[in-house]
Amino acid sequence: MEHYNMNLTLKVWRQENSDKKGKFETYKVNGISSEMSFLEMFDVLNEQLIHEGKDAIAFDHDCREGICGACSMYINGKPHGPWELNTTCQLHMRAFKDGDTIVVEPWRAKAFPVIKDLVTDRSSFDRIIQSGGYISVNTGNAVDANSLPIKKDHADAAFAAAACIGCGACVAACKNSSAMLFVSAKVSHLALLPQGEPEKESRVLNMIAQMDKEGFGGCTNTGACEATCPKGISLSNIARLNKEYTLASLISE
Amino acid sequence: MLDSKIPAGKLEEKWTDYKGHCKLVNPANKRKLEVIIIGTGLAGASAAAALGEMGYKVKTFCFQDSPRRAHSIAAQGGINAAKNYQNDGDSVFRLFYDTIKGGDYRAREANVHRLAEVSAAIIDQCVAQGVPFAREYGGLLSNRSFGGTQVQRTFYAAGQTGQQLLIGAYQALERQVALGTVTQYSRHEMLEVVTIDGVARGIIARDLVTGKLERHFGHAVLLCSGGYGNVFYLSTNAMGSNVTAAWKAHKKGAHFANPCYTQIHPTCIPVSGDYQSKLTLMSESLRNDGRIWVPKKQNDTRKAADIPEDERDYYLERRYPAFGNLVPRDVASRAAKERCDAGYGVGTSKQAVYLDFADAIIRYGKIECGKLGIDPTPQIVREHGLAVVKEKYGNLFDMYDKITGENPYETPMRIYPAVHYTMGGVWVDYELMTAVPGMYALGEANFSDHGANRLGASALMQGLADGYFVIPYTIGNYLADEIYKKAESTDHPAFAAAEKEVADRLNTLMNIKGKQTVESLHKRLGKIMWEKCGMGRTAEGLKEAIEEIRALKKEFWSDVKIPGTINEYNPELDKAGRVADFIELGELMCIDALNRNESCGGHFREESQTEDGEALRDDANYMYVAAWKYKGEHDWELCKEELKYEVIKPSQRNYK
Amino acid sequence: MTWKQVFTSSVGQKLTMGLSGIFLILFLIVHAGLNACIWAMDGGVMFNRAAHFMGDNVVPRVLEIGLFVFILLHIIQGLMLEASNRSKRGTPYAVSYGNRGSKWYSRSMGLLGTIILLFLVVHMVHFWIPSRFTGVAETTLPNGVEVHDLFSLMMATFQENIGVVILYVIGCISLAYHLAHGFQSAFRTMGVHNKRYVAMLKAIGYGFSVIVPLAFAMMPISMYFGWVK
């Protein structure tokens, strides 16, 4: 891989806090290596801003290896930037070329209010999980792990759904700001396992009720969420959720 | 001498006896007892869930925006448990023995045995929670082997075991939040412990969004705040991972034990430039199938593919025929450093070795062809082999590709050791209580189970063991006496004093208004630590490091530049507080490393090695835990806890 | 859980859209099949007979009520969902994800549906209202039965004005794209997640969304150009 350096123009959303109105600011960064990660490029910019006596740009990030789900930049119109199956922290600068202008926005959804600059409040996801995204088993109650065989393809499908990192890119990408992919990933993960069976109905009904309450939109199956999901969570999970929901709503009392 | 309160009796009966005799708290009283938990990784989330289920009033604190983002999530490889599902001779004793030996005989026997005992229940619990571990076609759980062991006892979920376990614990925690037993404080950082009459009684936390300081009372405080690898600036830890909670506890009376025991993980993606902000681990599980090599010729500039087989040095297989590529992490890391220092490194930086899957691809390809009854032409063998490797390690290979821009299916990966885990931590007794009554430390934050080196897939095991199965018993033994004490009001002078201390420190930091950024000072600390307290340590280097760190501390407190204000979301200020603590910790690490004039596990003193460059322990002089008591600036008192081996006879580790 | 909770939840509302959509898809088959009788080249006898059967028989008349209920439900629910979904974003993005993540017509169901609705109003004014209320010239079938001469009405409507033909073609194109998304989406909403079935339904959906609107579009076109006798 050839390494190269580039000069870039960045248009970044700046917003002091949730009460203030935000706007775009334009910054220039020079000598960015193609081997840097996108967030390292932001580190460089922030160092530059601090030296100029300005406030650093706030952005969420933590593990920087694509698994914690904290990073959340909407880059040139796509959550997590141009690469497929990727998080912002794993995006590297060789995705760009010298002279490029990059527009960076926060996740935008009423259910994810901006805290500062590119940082949003995603605690609505926690509350959705609280409404039923678990199996009710107290510590110490469990039977031997191998006492209940699980079909490999079910286990694999459950794992594929459980790979969700809760970053919220699906909400950011969806024209309706719907959290259906996130909710369906959890519903599918637990519905596919026999351990999740007893609470199947109440789980899906409560989680959807909470999702609606948090102010996320409805799903219209456009598929934008699947296309942007860094972990490749499949749209078929949403169909599975629909099935679970319909059955549950028919039989619940 | 410190009292570790290890129960009397035979090793394998200690925990059972303890559980049978510890004090209990009745359910009605549990509702009145408040427990504060700092950190929501595997240890914190599992403890919060378990204690919430029991009926205690729990408050959890994490600096991330959700408990689910704690860095346990990044653990890739797996979790050990003595299930012996593979019928390959595993047992509680063998897991115990491997862990003690892997830790180079610097861990406490009783703690490690308890860990091995509860390991099997962890897997049961996680499966019941819906953790999607890898399975065989028959529907039963799959296992793989990991470094430092000769049995297959590692349970895994592709390369995302930590994520799946943490999500399991997180879901259990969120369930308790919904039930009202746990209150969760995200984007909050603990900045001080409040002690009243020498007993932990609460914390001062800062709401990172508004910058406001909050007082929280607790009958007990649990530190589950993880390790301190970020003292090296570059590590596999998350950017936010920090020592602050543990360090505040240390300064309020908790001993800090074996700070110099840091684990350098052998398989990480090498540094590519000065801008590097963190290092990425490639799971140790890759060593199951990958072979590590360097060219036999020094400064060989040929491409990997152009180097013929007989000019490659598979140095781990050469030096350690019995364990080969599966030697423990400390051994593998040092061997890589040795080769690179000797001029055999690869890549542009020459600070890397190859991890090669070519053989594994062919081996798996042949097996698949055999299964399917296909004529094994090289092309078809390769295709099938690639498919198998992709299924096993696909996500790791993709990650490597994204970071380096190189395709690991075509060319061998370049890897180099990087700081990964810290075995040292807050000193705790058998009950996981620190030297401050009422304050506990769980998971990576404590020092107790891994000695001088941790085996792969044991960190997840320890975090969950402490949280799910140890603390629920040991905390009861303490809280049973607390029911006679009423909850302190947070108006108590001790809370006011602690809050003022925190506020003053924040003001001081903001008012320095110097010229250097927090990041640049942290980088400098990291450089000192990596060069002088990293993979190879000398008395001379450590003495220099101590002086340099002291000077850096002065510089920090006189010249740091923090933008913004206190009463707003200000990540630079948060970072400044953490780096200030890392600087103090760095000094103590060097002091500890200087004190320990032997090589053991992750701590390698160049003065103490065998003729062929293996670590040389000095059991006569250093068979103890070095627990440091904070006395004042640059001043610590060494308190020793003698390590008594009643069952295992320490020997020089041999993986040959 | 009450029925109200079911049908006011985001998934329940989608279910309403999907179910009514599938009913409307079935209606389209009947409607297209019936209208295809214009190509019998018998001066409209077969078509008028079929239309008479639909208008005179009690079963289609009852179904017609259902059809109106479903159309109204589909329209009202659709517009409500569109308004509600649009309100969830807050500050709009400066750069849109656009066609990189989804098809334009999947994101434009509200717009396409509105065009179809406008078309439907014109269409009803042209045929349904005269047939039900204001009256259509009568004709006698070979078997002696008096029926509305809808065939002549169609010929008159489409042969006189190219504008009407264009309007109908636009309506059919909108319907085609509406179906291209709506057909498979309806089944996903009903919970079909099995990969084989999804693939099959997608293929059928695309076929349906081309064939049926094309058949409809050809009616005014072939009358305008005098291909129908």
UniProtKB/TrEMBL annotation, chain A:
Keywords: 2Fe-2S, 4Fe-4S, Iron, Iron-sulfur, Metal-binding, Oxidoreductase. It comes from Filimonas zeae. Residues 155-185 form the 4Fe-4S ferredoxin-type domain. The gene is sdhB. InterPro entries: 2Fe-2S_ferredoxin-like_sf, 2Fe2S_fd_BS, 4Fe4S_Fe-S-bd, Beta-grasp_dom_sf, Helical_ferredxn, SDH/FRD_Iron-Sulfur, Succ_DH/fum_Rdtase_Fe-S, Succ_DH/fum_Rdtase_N. GO terms for molecular function: 2 iron, 2 sulfur cluster binding; 4 iron, 4 sulfur cluster binding; electron transfer activity; metal ion binding; oxidoreductase activity. The lineage of its organism: Bacteria, Pseudomonadati, Bacteroidota, Chitinophagia, Chitinophagales. The keyword 4Fe-4S applies. Pfam families: Fer2_3, Fer4_8. Belongs to the succinate dehydrogenase/fumarate reductase iron-sulfur protein family. This is Succinate dehydrogenase. Its cofactor is [3Fe-4S] cluster; [4Fe-4S] cluster; [2Fe-2S] cluster. GO terms for biological process: respiratory electron transport chain; tricarboxylic acid cycle.
UniProtKB/TrEMBL annotation, chain B:
Its cofactor is FAD. The active site is at R329. It is found in: Cell membrane. Residues 522-655 form the Fumarate reductase/succinate dehydrogenase flavoprotein-like C-terminal domain. Pfam families: FAD_binding_2, Succ_DH_flav_C. NCBIfam families: PRK07573.1, sdhA_Bsu. This is succinate dehydrogenase. It comes from Filimonas zeae.
